[in-house]
Write a structure and sequence with these properties.
By secondary structure, this protein is α/β, with parallel strands linked by helices. It has helices at 3-15, 18-25, 29-43, 59-88, 100-114, 127-136, 182-185, 197-209, 222-230, 277-291, and strands at 48-49, 56-57, 91-95, 120-124, 141-145, 153-161, 163-168, 189-192, 215-219, 236-239, 251-255, 263-270. The chain contains ten helices and twelve strands. It is rod-shaped, with a radius of gyration of 31 Å.
Length: 294
């Protein structure tokens, strides 16, 4: 007993006509007749009284129709719902907390403008968790900096990830060329939480050089870090992409490209995974955004 046979029977039972059922199902009439006969042979009963016109259901046919009709309707609605999910999402994107409020926001805004019916789920995670979520299938894709990743993951670089020193206006480090991390380590530091990428890179360099340093404030947001720096609590090191044009009114910035690695950031996907249409559209929007300097 196959679904196609049940569909042919249900259509003929509803329309009281094999020919009309065949037309609706876009099948040949002999095919629908064969489906119904196979059902009758398998069940050992006649499902239609073919003497009368239009054809009438037998008692066994009436019983089967009552059982089969909800099943067929459920299968048909499942197909429609599956198509809706394929066309509308949701798409789960995991990214690091330094990228989400700035770079990611611009891409999300453009995506929502172009595809208002598609649903996005944005998850802020450490690089380690972004890698894990994409590997485990919890996220359709990740957006993160850094070259290191598991071999089953594919990485498409999209934009440069450069660090800058962030200070209050008038800070002594703004009056000189910063040529060593020693000059930075002597000041109170305001950094993102542990296990965030830039902090890991910075602290690894401090430890490698044997430099003492003090983190006086830990925060989960670069926007909050900038506010604390502007108030004079300490200095920070963060990604240039977190700097907004208006920040120059309150903060000083110095490139750290000579002291810390300049990396590529981009899209992380699971190798061989078939991405949904909404996921592919979001990736297209990100490519467009950065190709145009967004």
């Amino acid at each position: 007993m196959e679904i196609r046979e049940l569909k042919s029977f249900a259509a003929a039972a509803r329309l009281r006509s094999v020919s009309r059922a065949a037309e609706q199902l876009q099948l040949g009439q002999p095919t629908v007749t064969t489906h119904i006969k196979k059902l009758e042979n398998e069940l050992g009963v006649s499902l239609f009284d073919r003497v009368k016109r239009p054809i009438q259901l037998t008692l066994a046919g009436e019983t089967l129709a009552q059982l089969v009709t909800p099943l067929i309707e459920g299968i048909d609605s499942l197909a429609v719902r599956t198509l809706d999910l394929e066309e509308e999402g949701p798409v789960t994107v995991a990214s690091t907390p330094d990228i989400i409020p700035h770079t990611m926001l611009r891409a999300v805004t453009a995506f929502r403008t172009q595809h208002p019916r598609l649903h996005l789920r944005i998850r802020s995670r450490t690089r380690f968790d972004v890698l894990r979520m994409v590997s485990d299938g919890e996220a359709d894709l990740g957006v993160m900096p850094g070259p290191d990743r598991a071999p089953e993951l594919e990485f498409e670089p999209l934009f440069v990830y450069e660090r800058v020193l962030i200070t209050p206006l008038g800070h002594p480090l703004l009056d000189q060329e910063v040529t060593s991390l020693d000059e930075i380590a002597q000041y109170p530091l305001i950094l993102m939480a542990r296990r965030t990428h830039t902090r890991d890179v910075l602290e690894s360099e401090f430890r490698r050089r044997g430099l003492p340093y003090e983190v006086v404030v830990e925060l989960d947001s670069m926007d909050m870090i900038k506010r604390y720096v502007a108030s004079g609590v300490g200095i920070s090191v963060g990604p240039r992409l977190a700097i907004d044009p208006e920040d120059v009114d309150d903060l000083g910035m110095v490139s750290m490209a000579n002291l810390l690695p300049v990396e590529q950031a981009g899209i992380l996907t699971l190798q061989g995974k078939a991405l949904s249409t909404p996921a592919r559209r979001f990736i297209d929007v990100m490519r467009e955004s950065f190709a145009s300097g967004g």
